[in-house]
Amino acid sequence: MVFFYIILLAVVLCGLRFNRYNQDYISVQQTNAIKGVFIWLVFMGHIMPYIVDVAPFELAVDRAAVSVVVTLKQLVVVPFMFYSGYGVMNSIKHKGAGYVGSIPKRRVMATMLNFGVAVSFFVLLNLILNISMSLEKVLLSFVCMASVGNSNWYIFVICICYLSSYLSYKLFGYGKRYLMANLTLMILFALVISQFKGSWWYDTCLAYSAGSVYCYYKESVERVVNRNYLIYVTLAASALVVSYIVMLNATIAQSLLFMNVCSVCFSLFIVVLSMRLQLKSRLLEWSGKNLFPLYIYQRIPMLLFSVLCGGCLVGELKYVYVIVCAVISIALAHLYKYIAIKL
Asked: What angle do CA 103, 104, 110 make, to 5 degrees?
């Protein structure tokens, strides 16, 4: 699978531009391009288990590709969390109460309704493929508490993040008290959900709060970093490496704290790096813009072709399997606009 990473790396390198200062480092276009890189890393993380469970990789370079997925862990979703927190905070800053009032409807309800449509397609696919599902599992899948082959945890967590922003603003308005309330609510969420779900449900959620904090202090941070850029990019990289090593050696109980710390450090490293490196790529920008359908619907071809014809495509033509799944995922993301529910 190393060829996929080579292609992705080539796309990134072709789109990179060095600037003395990238004024658009946190613009919509730039953040979409960065998210586009990571949604394809998520794609590889999702497709690997389908392949490894049927036919483990024989080539050392392909096993190395698997190790990339293992090494990155949950960090691949951190940019989604961070930029969402930044985007919501920035909208609150410029649009105020009107925007906040629309969060339950346009952010949370719209996301859950479109997620429900996607779950319906997975249920239908399971019925066609004769994959057994209990009624309880199907019903719980519509509220992200179970899965019928679809991704679920991220949708639940991001909706909680949106609601935390809504409640924080309603309680304290825009300002430092909002930031404290948002951080407190996210910590409480992590503590509660950790009693019922796996670590991936809560170990990156503080990156959302970090995005809000960064938005609030953005101008101050920019002034400080730009005075001694090399020092701060080195500090950001060092903090990431140290936090990652600590996280790897943490117990399951400690992972709640250390993985979130690592997530925040990773977010800041990407932000500081993007102040000098600009990423321009139509493919990656499109991927980031269409994050939701790419994330949710990519498992449909993965599931379909892992079962079809006894899974022969996965077992005998695993490279073709990856390409087919990628192409169909792009097609489904393109078609999504025709079924998307907008409120």
From this structure: 95
pLDDT along the chain (343 residues), means of 10: 86 92 93 96 90 70 69 87 97 95 96 97 95 94 95 96 97 95 96 90 94 96 94 95 87 79 95 95 96 96 85 77 94 95 88
Residues in the chain: 343
Apex CA 341: angle with CA 174 and CA 101, to 5°? 20
DSSP state of 108: I
Plot region of 17 (φ>0 → left; ψ -120 to 50 → alpha; else → beta): beta
Q: Please state, in angstroms and rounded to a whole number, the distance separating the CA atoms of residues 85 and 104.
A: 15
Q: Identity (one letter) of the amino acid at 16?
A: L
Buried b (16+ CB within 10 A) or exposed e, 256-293: bbbbbbbbbbbbbbbbbebbbbbbebeebbbbbbbbbb
Q: Which residue has the tokens 């670590």?
A: 199
Integer Cα distance of 48 and 46 in angstroms: 6
Q: Give the residue among 108, 145, 150 at the shortest CA–CA distance from 126.
A: 150
Q: Which residues contact 12 (CB under 8 A, 6 or more apart)?
A: 37, 279, 281, 284
| Extended beta strands in 189-291, E state | 277-279
Provide the pairing of β-strand 277-279 with 16-18: antiparallel
**Tokens linked to 111:** 């996301």
